[in-house]
Write a structure and sequence with these properties.
Structural class: mainly alpha
Radius of gyration: 17 Å
CATH topology: Glycerol uptake facilitator protein
Strand content: under 5%
Number of domains: 1
CATH class: Mainly Alpha
Number of helices: 9
Shape: globular
Oligomer: single chain
Number of strands: 0
CATH superfamily: Glycerol uptake facilitator protein
Length: 228
Amino acid sequence: MKKLVAEFIGTLWLVLGGCGSAVLAAAYPELGIGFAGVSLAFGLTVVTMAYAIGHVSGCHLNPAVSIGLWAGGRFDKKDLLPYIVAQVLGGIAGAGILYLIASGKPGFELGGFAANGYGAHSPGGYGMLSALVCEMVMTFMFLMVILGATHSKAPKGFAGVAIGLALTLIHLISIPVTNTSVNPARSTSQAIFVGDWATDQLWLFWVAPIVGALLAGLVYKLLSPEKK
C-alpha cells in the first residue's frame, strides 16, 4: 500500500507540475515559459519525485514505465495492475487540482487543457501515423534510459537526473507533434476533463507508449540482462 500511495502522489505531482505549467504558464503574456519551459517542468517533476519516492516505489509514475520494467525483468507481474491503477488515479487527482486552480480565473475556458492529440488537435497539425511513430519511439528511448540508468552496473545516485533530462528532451522533440504523452496516465487525466475528441483519440496514447515500452524492455534485456 505504501508503494501505491507513493505512485499516486508522484503521478499527481507529474500531472500538476507538467500539465500545470502548460495550462497556467506556457502562454502567459510576455513572460510565458513556452515549449522549453513546459519540457523542463515535466523533467523536474520526475527528478524531484525520483529522490522523494524512488526508495519507496521505484518512482514509475507511468503505466508504460511499469510495463517496460516488467518486460525487462525488473518488475514483478503481480504489482503491475495495482501500480497502473494508482498512477491513473493520481493523474486524475492532479488534473482535478489543476482544474480547480485554472477555473478560478475570470473568463476561464477549458480548451485543450494540455490534452494529447493528433490531426487537428496536434499543436503542429501532425497526422495519426506521425503521432503513433513519435509516441512509440519516444517511449522506447525513455525506457532505454530508465533501464540503463537504474541498472546495477550504472553509477549510483544519478538515475533520477538522467531520467528527468531524458523526459525533458523527449518533450522538446515531441510537444509540437502530440503535446507529448509517453505516459497513458498523464493522457487519461487530461482527456477525462476535455472529453469529446480527447477521449476519442486516447487509445493512441495507451497503445503507442505501451508498445514502445515493451520493445525497450525486451531489447535492453538482451543488451544487458540483470543477474538474478
